[in-house]
Amino acid sequence: MRTAQTAAGPQRAAEQASARMTREQSKANTRERLLAAARGAFASSGFHGASVEEIASRAGFSTGALYSNFDGKEDLFLVLMEREIDLHAREIAQAVSVRESVAERATGGARQWMTMIEREPELLLLFMEFWAYGVRDTKVRPKVAARFAQVRRMLTKLIEDGVREFELELEIPAEQLAVAIDALADGIARQKLADPGAVPDELMGRVLSLLFSAATRPASG
Fold first, then answer.
1. Which residues lie closer than 8 Å to 1 by C-beta, 6 or more apart?
2. pLDDT digits over 123-136, tens only?
């Protein structure tokens, strides 16, 4: 009898662990579906225009599922943007890191950014809505600013790595150059989205190369 009970203990523990894993997987799947639905809803309707009912319906859930996974629409929006920014920042960093010169890194990063916008035009709409949301509401502006700071930190690191690797010096601080590059990327992407024919695909890469040429010089002995 003791042997049977002893054997039943590990089996029951395994079943409980499997049940917990299944619940965790189900919760993770629910969050992913809600985030995907929110991405489309916020891009098409804006933060204020998209309702929790619409997002939940798009995902195939009730609003109760949304509130059991997120504190509300604002929390969902902030989590979504943090993930989107991190995902695309890493994508650009990967495209840049394999290049063998400053000019190639500039054109490679620019090409990757424009490819992302052409592939997912709703991405730019989402970023613009996120910016507008933060500017309008001073209470949440620090939270929004923190998400955008992710991009500037990534750009600053890429600049610093390139300067060190290619033995260059900067005319302005890397952080300020990162701000300028971020603004250039947003502006050209908006122009491309509004009037694709007016913005050559290689324009951003050319401008970035000129910018880096003006902003750097060979390191002094």
1. none
2. 888 888 888 888 88
